[in-house]
Amino acid sequence: QVQLVESGGALVQPGGSLRLSCAASGSIFSINAMGWYRQAPGKQRELVASINSVGGTNYVDSVKGRFTISRDNAKNTWYLQMNSLKPEDTAVYYCNAAILNTGTWRVYWGQGTQVTVSS
């Protein structure tokens, strides 16, 4: 069994910063791509950032230059550093990853963490 647990969501003022963490645990043989998605009320879930096994990254245009995704392979953990936060960044943030478990690759999701940007 594999579990992803997010942390770091909070209420922050515009212009502030937060760092989200996602830790994977369980019977993990390998983790390939890792990512962060978000879903705001009334909107579809969107990919915010992703990082592949060799460190290549991808960002949605709205967060480029403000958010940074990184990974610590030794800890099976990845992060989303969010700077210069805006009210439109308010959403539930979900992490996901492609994980090799008992011989099968599957995509796993975390439970979500709330980020609210408001004064």
Topology:
Layout: E1 2-7, E2 11-12, E3 18-26, E4 30-39, E5 46-51, E6 57-59, E7 67-72, E8 77-82, E9 91-101, E10 104-109, E11 113-117
Parallel strand pairs: 2-11
Antiparallel strand pairs: 1-3, 3-8, 4-5, 4-9, 5-6, 7-8, 9-10, 9-11
Brief characterization of the structure:
The chain is mainly β and 119 residues long.
How is this structure best described in words?
With 119 residues, this protein is mainly β. The strands form two sheets. Strands 2, 4, 5, 6, 9, 10 and 11 form a seven-stranded mixed beta sheet that branches. The model has no long low-confidence stretch (mean pLDDT 96).
Which tags fit this structure?
119 residues; mainly beta; seven-stranded mixed β-sheet; four-stranded antiparallel β-sheet
